[in-house]
Amino acid sequence: MIFVTRKEHFNAAHKLYNPNWSKEKNEEVFGPCANENWHGHNFELIVTVKGTPDPDTGFVIDLKVLGKLIKSSIVDRLDHKNINLDVDFMKDKLASCEILVMEIWKILEKELAAQNSRAKLHRIKLVETPKNYVEYFG
Amino acid sequence: MIFVTRKEHFNAAHKLYNPNWSKEKNEEVFGPCANENWHGHNFELIVTVKGTPDPDTGFVIDLKVLGKLIKSSIVDRLDHKNINLDVDFMKDKLASCEILVMEIWKILEKELAAQNSRAKLHRIKLVETPKNYVEYFG
Amino acid sequence: MIFVTRKEHFNAAHKLYNPNWSKEKNEEVFGPCANENWHGHNFELIVTVKGTPDPDTGFVIDLKVLGKLIKSSIVDRLDHKNINLDVDFMKDKLASCEILVMEIWKILEKELAAQNSRAKLHRIKLVETPKNYVEYFG
Amino acid sequence: MIFVTRKEHFNAAHKLYNPNWSKEKNEEVFGPCANENWHGHNFELIVTVKGTPDPDTGFVIDLKVLGKLIKSSIVDRLDHKNINLDVDFMKDKLASCEILVMEIWKILEKELAAQNSRAKLHRIKLVETPKNYVEYFG
Amino acid sequence: MIFVTRKEHFNAAHKLYNPNWSKEKNEEVFGPCANENWHGHNFELIVTVKGTPDPDTGFVIDLKVLGKLIKSSIVDRLDHKNINLDVDFMKDKLASCEILVMEIWKILEKELAAQNSRAKLHRIKLVETPKNYVEYFG
Amino acid sequence: MIFVTRKEHFNAAHKLYNPNWSKEKNEEVFGPCANENWHGHNFELIVTVKGTPDPDTGFVIDLKVLGKLIKSSIVDRLDHKNINLDVDFMKDKLASCEILVMEIWKILEKELAAQNSRAKLHRIKLVETPKNYVEYFG
After folding, report:
1. Considering C33, C44, C103, C122, which one is annotated as catalytic?
2. Strands B39-51 and A132-136
3. What are chain A's domains?
């Protein structure tokens, strides 16, 4: 079993905001992350798949194919967007990295299955700032 | 003459948008950077000052003092904010890095002068993405 | 289960030195790391916790809370210190990264338990130089 | 159990090329990576071993010893070389990172065993570009 | 005057080899860099231009335009190539970074002039390894 | 004129301490950097030289030669040392980066001159932490 990883980037705006709470409660819990007019990040999306290498190519997956899949199914829907307002698969969800990473997993797992890829999704890692990142293994 | 540099960070939302233009013209010129609902970045703000070391301390400037000055006069006004909407010194200005870096220069130059610091401002560098940055030398 | 990671930094001096050995034996085994007058590093302390997101906040743990916990219980006791001489929890222990990382684990595990956090400690990673790091999973 | 990691580097040329295929088929499958006249990379080789610390040294393994082992058994055979043409242990194999990382594992596992090291090989990670890396756990 | 910088990447093979010298002399002078069968690098190409911001856009140059220019005129001719064999503008030249950076300057200066860009070329920086880079200011 | 840069590393302990001042005054001015028992850093030493490429080699300077010169004349005297106690050229000087970088300049300038190198020293950059660095141009 070999683990193969691809990094992609996107820039997006968001705020941490629970619509069931008052503005004051949101500011108390989320602090500056609740700023009404949004803030944003350069997100680094790091996708790891696993599998055995194809004997003809030496590839678990062609990394250019994986890169395109990540771009078309995830990055193009998040890049230069507002995660709370513009992203269909985040509608009515809290725009935290923890939730985002689980939603990204669901989409990519389905995409890989649809391609009958020999690679299985192993990990989604999402880097929000140089100090903070989250990981999900399904 | 010694050059001394301090890096600080802030996360902010913005959009590139000329209010004298139609929405279509903005999208044509600025592309996804004009996204109505904003996008954002982890900005890296890198400030270089120059001067001769104080013979008693070996310092051109105490870097903790410089760090606090950058934080109180710049970072606290930009971090977790919307550059177009929330930042007084960017009011009615295009929220591009080129404009931002010139406005940051004006503020920091005044602050250093007010402190009678032996350090003179040399360069403001603003990193917007891993691929793009701007610099201003006054 | 989501894994959430926070990075913090500290600068410290240490030497690798076994007090049961002669100076010559220490130099033979530890080489320049045994330098009598110490050497030092910029240590990067990377803490991963795991848990399920709180449905109200989308957080496994508030990363600002985790950052403060790491700072108050670990970084403040190590930063700008001598690990062999100044750090109570390293008293009479070898000041290697392997030992340090296990001691940090004990403290942080207790702190998280004391807070009834939904996050459980998963990994302590300690980066000593750009080429060397250690990890501990309890 | 402590995990200890060492990073080393090498610069090498290679091409992705299946000798059982026509030139056209190779270009179709591997694209620019099949360029007849080679291309190359700065590879980052990251080796993790695991074990319990020696009570006399606090070491799972002396990282200088591990570094020398990686250099003499792997890096010296790959650095400033052509992976397809110059590297004995890659003879008649596809020069993909997936294959390379498995061959490196075999060599390092044997070397550690020959030294009766208390450290056991845990992971080989090979970074080919800032966007792509592979990992192997045996 | 604002300085604006764009980073692009390419992976290439090369060797340092003076055709007027014997194989032995080349190996003596260039060491492993003269390896007959080539070696390679992940090159980072960092281009800085300077100018005054356009009052309508806040741009010295649209960085997406600059990125495309660098890609079409430089990166596409170097990426996944052999610098000694495949690159027309390096024909009969020593494939050192010093020579390469001067040739890249000539091409990009002409391209910017052809576009009547308000941006003037300021610096070409070429990073060959994590330890080595060269710069040229024309 | 081409500018060529080489990065080297060293790990060292130091404290900021003016022997003409009381312990209290030192702590007041230098804060935790005055810690009696030292602290330390991973220093990154970045040396830039300038000159015209040799027509036979394409080199301003052989970077392996420059690397060895930096190692033998600077790094070997600082690595795994205490800057205040162990380093002859820092005797009776304040161990700040500003002073250190000027002393390194003096030594490297003399060494390059002694070698009749076509390269002239251009800049010494010393990175002390991820947030702080100093530069000296002679």
Report:
1. C33
2. unpaired
3. 2-136 (3.30.479.10)
